[in-house]
Design goal:
Keywords: Acyltransferase, Cytoplasm, Iron, Metal-binding, Transferase, tRNA processing. GO terms for molecular function: tRNA N(6)-L-threonylcarbamoyladenine synthase activity. This is tRNA N6-adenosine threonylcarbamoyltransferase. The protein is an alpha/beta fold. The chain is 44% helix and 19% strand. The chain folds into 2 domains: 131 residues, Nucleotidyltransferase, domain 5, CATH 3.30.420; 172 residues, Nucleotidyltransferase, domain 5, CATH 3.30.420. It has 10 helices and 10 strands. Bound molecules: 5'-O-[(R)-(carboxyoxy)(hydroxy)phosphoryl]adenosine and zinc ion (ZN). Zinc ion binds next to helix 3.
Length: 333
């Protein structure tokens, strides 16, 4: 019955969680508000905010779980990928606790943990499954053979899906992060009002940078004719942008499912909160006979519960890290 403390600090969320034998006992997230005014995450400010938040966040996770430090069987942390200065704060903190308590250390890959988030609550997918991980920094198609054995079979060659949402929102004058706002307006609009191009990218990779340019020209052209075009048609524009981003994602997911023959299909990452993506996946699932899954909302966006669960499976395999382990900004699998 291992009790694990996990720390996540790869981007702009300082998070800590406790899990006991694969069950989440606490999951605390401090979202850094400091970046809002800059329209994106400022790495230096993220590191400083992690340093301010990490002690109270870890403390709260331990208190809420009702465990003592002595009961911990291992300390887990996000080792990669992410902002290096942000990762360093979590890594250094985890190493210090492990050293002070003389407990093993477990290093976790953030993107694998996003996939593992699907194993937190029931119903859980059966292996092997496919996972479309879509966040502000990543867009990946992952084939998971087990909680510790997975491979990337497709990914974006430029922007991430979340970036496509956020950059489109910025062009429309919406505040950062604009993805959730596009989702809100899209619900009131017609997804077929405007047609944006679908990039022709071979294999299972994605591209979103062309879409961003197409949206920029589209807005400029319409604003020349009607300066209040955005105001007048915001729901239709948002619905049409969302429709295209979702179709780019789901068409590749469908290709992956048909090529591999896998019918257990998951979503993960912050963009999996998008209602158009969830509805689209459910419809496609019905059509192709898939079982579909997505994590509960607190486990979609960056959190430490998913790090704790990924660490739990590594603990079972006695896959511990050396105390000298250092974080890396970019990391393969
Ligand atoms: O996984 P996440 O919390 O952070 C990382 O990037 O790691 O994902 C954040 C991204 C942002 O780009 C945000 O705009 C997007 O997820 N997002 C959404 C929705 N909720 C969050 N995009 C579209 N629709 C949503 N409902
Ligand atoms: Zn993430």
């Amino acid at each position: 019955m291992p009790v694990l403390l996990a720390i996540e600090s790869s981007c702009d969320e300082t998070a800590a969680a406790i899990c006991k034998d694969g069950q989440v006992l606490s999951n605390i997230v401090a979202t850094q508000k400091v970046h809002e005014q800059y329209g994106g995450v400022v790495p230096e400010l993220a590191s400083r905010a992690h340093m301010q938040h990490i002690v109270p966040v870890v403390d709260q996770a331990i208190q809420q779980a009702g465990v003592s430090l002595e009961e911990l069987d291992a300390i887990a942390f996000t080792q990669a990928p992410g902002l290096i200065g942000a990762l360093l704060v979590g890594a250094q903190f985890a190493r210090s606790i492990a050293l002070a308590l003389n407990k093993p250390l477990i290093s976790v890959h953030h993107m694998q943990a996003h996939v593992v988030a699907n194993l937190i609550d029931d119903p859980k997918p059966c292996f092997p499954f496919l996972c479309l991980t879509v966040s502000g920094g990543h867009t990946q198609l992952v084939l998971a053979e087990s909680p510790t054995n997975m491979k990337v079979i497709g990914e974006t060659i430029d922007d991430a899906a979340g970036e496509a949402f956020d950059k489109s929102a910025k062009l429309l004058g919406l505040p950062y992060p604009g993805g959730p706002l596009i989702d809100v307006y899209a619900k009131k609009g017609n997804p077929k009002a405007f047609r944006f191009p679908e990039p022709q990218i071979p294999d299972l990779n994605f591209s979103f940078s062309g879409l961003k340019t197409a949206i920029l020209y589209f807005i400029q052209e319409h604003q020349q004719e009607n300066p209040s075009f955005i105001q007048d048609r915001l729901p239709d524009i948002c619905a049409s942008i969302q429709d295209r981003i979702v179709s780019i994602l789901l068409n590749k997911l469908k290709k992956a499912a048909l090529e591999t023959g896998i019918r257990e299909i998951c979503l993960a990452g912050g963009v999996s909160a998008n209602s158009g993506l969830r509805n689209g996946l459910e419809q496609m699932g019905k059509k192709y006979g898939w079982k579909t899954y997505y994590p509960a909302l607190p486990y979609c966006t960056d959190n430490a519960a998913m790090i704790a669960l990924a660490a739990y499976y590594k603990f079972l395999e006695k896959d511990f890290a050396d105390l000298s382990v250092t974080p890396t900004a970019r990391a393969g699998w």
